[in-house]
Amino acid sequence: MTRFRQAGLYLVTSQTLSAGRTTPEIVKAALAGGVTLIQLREKEMSLREYVPLAKEVREMTARAGALLIINDRVDVAMAVEADGVHLGQEDFPVREARRLAPDLIIGASTHSIEEALKAQEEGASYINIGPIYPTGTKVWEGEFLGLDGLRAIARVARIPFSVMGGIKPGHIPGLVAAGARIIAVVTAVTAATNPRTVAAGLVRMIRESDGCL
Predict the structure, then answer these.
(1) How many domains does the chain have?
(2) 82, 83, 95, 176: which has the highest count of C-beta atoms within 10 A?
(3) 83 by DSSP, 3-state: which?
């Protein structure tokens, strides 16, 4: 979790949103750009395709000294010896995941104060707060939290949190000022013309906004 807290940028993959490139290509570029925290999230991929991809990305992140979080699947995270698993509100329950995998980093998506408090109580290692802004990567019928919603949930967070949802480079100073230190993105990197350069720029921007450089 020390490495998680220090990551700054949290890349979430999506091969269908990678401008025709494969997820390993995006991961390679991101790692070269200094990303140290990656979530493998491939909603459209079958399990038969997903498991070997998870193994490949685990090898890549391990060589680079980066953390790998698997989206949704506790079993896949354990099978490929990932560092953690990220669970949505409709996914495997946090409490049961903690019982099955006591040493995994377990993240939980939260959209309200109530969900954040429940995730903490059930043993989450971190929560993700979002969606902050309108986003095309997630079907969402609720309200977008914005900075006020972020601040409200951050006030009750006793564990680390990440933020996600429609985040662009121009949002970063405001998010950091509101308390965010781990900022998750998808298309800002995956759809970029040069993912390595963009990832490096985002890593630098987060650190500078946080006064780390």
Answers:
(1) 1
(2) 82
(3) coil
